[in-house]
Amino acid sequence: MPWILAEATPVPIPTMTVDPESVTPGPVGFVAIALLAVIVVFLIWDLLRRVRRVRYRAEVAEALDAEIAAQEAQDGPVESEDEPGDPTPRA
Q1: Following CA atoms 37, 38, 39, 40 in sequence, which dihedral angle do they give, to the nearest 10 degrees?
Q2: Angstrom distance (rounded) from CA 83 to CA 62
Q3: How many CB atoms lie within 10 A of CB 68?
């Protein structure tokens, strides 16, 4: 029985059949990735600009509301720009 294990056939070592230089992305792949990176940078830049704009608008609205509240505390109620009876708040 021990001679069966000794006579096992060796496993062949795989050899590379494809040239590694022919499967690289090359200049076309580099241009595609570089273009994708530039697009992502511009999208992030635009997103940050929009978020900043929303934050500034919220700060201005908060300042206006504080100014109206201070004026109401001094003089009494101030007429709003909304139509009378309009239940929707001013944005």
Answers
A1: 50
A2: 21
A3: 14
